From TrEMBL:
Domain Transcription regulator PadR C-terminal: 92-175
PANTHER family tied to this protein: TRANSCRIPTIONAL REGULATOR YQJI, TRANSCRIPTIONAL REGULATORY PROTEIN
Superkingdom classification of source: Bacteria
Residue ranges of domain Transcription regulator PadR N-terminal in the record: 7-80
Name the record gives this protein: PadR family transcriptional regulator
Matches recorded under SUPFAM superfamilies: Winged helix' DNA-binding domain
Length: 182
C-alpha cells in the first residue's frame, strides 16, 4: 500500500488540512500505517499534482492561511480501483520474536524485562482502543454501513492487543516456570 491510499481513505472520510491529516494519522491510521508529517505534506503535494486531491486556501484570523484538501473524482476512482486489487501478503517482522529465539544465548533477565515492557505497551494500546470503541462505537450492533470499516479495523486492533497481552503472559509464566525448575 502506498501512503497515497491511506491519505485518500482519510480524506474520503473527512476533508482536512495537512496539519489535521497528520494529527489524524497520529491518533488513528498511524497505529497501522506510519508516516511522518513531512511525508504526508510531500505526498499531498504529489497527489494534488496528479489530480487525486484538490485544495482550497482558507484564511484564519491571527494565523497563517491553511490549505484544506478534498478527494477529487479521480482520487475516488483510484481509491475504488485500489480496493478492488487483491492485498499482497503481509509478512510479519518482529525483532521481539527474534530476541525470544535468542533466549538460550543472551541475557534472560533482560529478555524478561523486555517482555514486561512489551506487555505494558500492549496494555496501554488496548486501553486506548477500548476507550475509542466506547467513544466512537458505543453500540456495535447498530453500526451503519459507513461506520463498519472503521469498527472492523478497531476490532482488529482490540483482538491483536488482547492476543499480544496473553502471549506476553504465557512467555512470562513459562520463563518463570523454567527458572523455578533450574
Amino acid at each position: 500500500m502506498a501512503l497515497e491510499h491511506a491519505i485518500l481513505v482519510s480524506l474520503a472520510e473527512r476533508s482536512a488540512s495537512g496539519y489535521d491529516l497528520a494529527r489524524r494519522f497520529d491518533a488513528s491510521i498511524g497505529h497501522f500505517w506510519k508516516a511522518s508529517h513531512q511525508q504526508i505534506y510531500k505526498v499531498l503535494a504529489r497527489m494534488e499534482g496528479d489530480g487525486w486531491v484538490s485544495s482550497e486556501t482558507v484564511a484564519q484570523a491571527g494565523r497563517p492561511d491553511k490549505k484544506v484538501y478534498v478527494v477529487t473524482s479521480a482520487g475516488r476512482t483510484e481509491l475504488a480501483a485500489w480496493t478492488a486489487r487483491p492485498t499482497a501478503e503481509e509478512h510479519l517482522r518482529s525483532e521481539f520474536s527474534v530476541k525470544l529465539r535468542a533466549l538460550p544465548f543472551g541475557d534472560a533477565a533482560a529478555i524478561v524485562e523486555d517482555v514486561r515492557r512489551q506487555r505494558r505497551h500492549h496494555a496501554d494500546r488496548l486501553a486506548y482502543y477500548v476507550e475509542s470503541a466506547a467513544k466512537f462505537y458505543p453500540d456495535p450492533d447498530s453500526l451503519t454501513h459507513d461506520q463498519l470499516g472503521g469498527w472492523l479495523v478497531l476490532r482488529g486492533g482490540l483482538l491483536t492487543e488482547e492476543t499480544a497481552i496473553r502471549w506476553c503472559d504465557e512467555i512470562l509464566q513459562r520463563l518463570l516456570d523454567a527458572e523455578a525448575d533450574r
